[in-house]
Give the backbone structure.
Amino acid sequence: MLAWLTDINRLRIVKIQDVKEENSTVKTFTFHDKYCADAVPGQFVMVWIPGVDEIPMSLSAIGADGVSSITVAEVGEATKMLRKKKAGEVLGVRGPYGNGFALTSGSVMIVGGGTGLTPLMPLAERLAELSAKIVFLVGAKTRDELFFLDKIETIVPEVTATTEDGSYGLKGIVTELAEQILEKQRFDMIYACGPEPMMLKMFLLAEQYNMPFQASLERYIRCGIGICGSCCIGEYRICRDGPVFSSEQLRKVRNEFGLFKREVDGKKVKF
Amino acid sequence: MSNRLLTEIAGLKLANPTMLAAGILGMSGLSLKRVAEAGVGAVITKSMGLKPRIGYANPTLVQVNCGILNAMGLPNPSIHHFVEEIDEAKKGGVPVIISVYGFSSKDFGEAARVAAETGADALELNVSCPHVERTGSEIGQNPQLVAEVVEEVKNVVDKPVFVKLTPNVADITEIAEAAVKAGADAITAINTVRAMAIDVETTRPILANRVGGLSGPAIKPIALRCVYEICREVKVPLIGCGGVTTWQDAVEFMLAGASAVQIGTAIAFEGLGVFKSIAEGINAYLEEMNFGSVKEIVGLAHRY
């Protein structure tokens, strides 16, 4: 193999080791891959569902033993077919791709919404190892959509869930809770992943309270290696420059972030 | 950057002989502007047609042992939705060349006309995409169809017209001659080489479209031979494309007869700094070899 072709770009066929139902709509698939074992929290893999599609998925666990996982909710045809996979069946993976989160010690706030929670799991684990003081907030529409709470509790002492209908935890939206906390407490870093309007709100709060911020963004991804241009936001490529962006970078894409995305044909459309 | 690197192709002035290849990062104006700011001589957009296209399902790209295989399927928002992007791209301060495709010569003419109106500095005709039916190489493999497309476009636009050729033909010079006879102002050689990959464990073709185009180092010797052969037969400027990763690759193409080179796949491995590093490498070579201008080395290999 030529020196400039990289091992992480090779498509590897991995066997699904275990499938865990997190709730009625979300499943976690574990697999063994030595390149994923070296991933940075926040990086993603391109997952090939043979005969169906290839989709970007954040790693929801990065095991030092080589066992990593992806966590999937049904959002379209590809995730529907992926969720039908059983232990012993195979997937293709290439990556891990992207930059991942920049780690901090000190006190941090982590805010996850919906399946945006997935890249925040290995992040919280790594931050806990660095003895960061973590305030973890999880938002969902309703109780049935919540997942990973038990796992988060094993990592951090302080986790608060919000549901919009009040069926579990505090009633309301997670950004309102975040704002109440930010009024009283300073953090060395705020991390967020979830629906983009939620991340925009968190970014604006971080700006208002003058605290550093990182968010993991999502767009339609094709190549994963920074050449096709499908996943651009402003001057950035989600797959290569992101998916994690700092406040400084997000300021540069203020007229797209949370407002516009690109369709599969490249047309810029409102969120 | 040094004056030695200044060059000109069909009236377009380039600060250095590197270009962003079509299909690479050309979906948005800000991406093109960023490449311009990274030191490229000119940028070429993704291929635009008359109607929006979503392209093929993923996998659209896979790395093979000697390069990259892709079948994107010409995704684009249509030339009509690209005006705003071109305005943004032009702020990068380098020539912006719009790549267009069509399913007939009339389509090509109309897409080129709209592209020229949006402010393209030049057009590049994609008669070489190796994996979309009824366009690309299905046109570009037939000298008569190529001539019809080029004539139609030249009739409706007064901007320089580049024609990007496919290597998937028996004799590429025949196609180049037909394009030039019909009025092409420059020839780009080559587009990707039709190719495929099969996964042995699942026994499936990997690309959703099964067949795609190979780019990267594997195709450089093929592209170089194409430029060398075309250079002997036509008098218009040539642009080399295919596997350019280092300044030595770029110089090779110029010695074979190319006035400039296009770079795409190398960005995946070298990053956006690849344009500047290749331009600087060419400059150092020219200085070392006592050439006053990059134009002096174009076609030098033909002396032997």
Notes: DSSP finds ten helices and 16 strands in chain B. Chain B has a mean pLDDT of 97. Chain B touches chain A through 49 residues (CB under 8 Å). Residues 274-288 of chain B form the longest helix (15 residues).
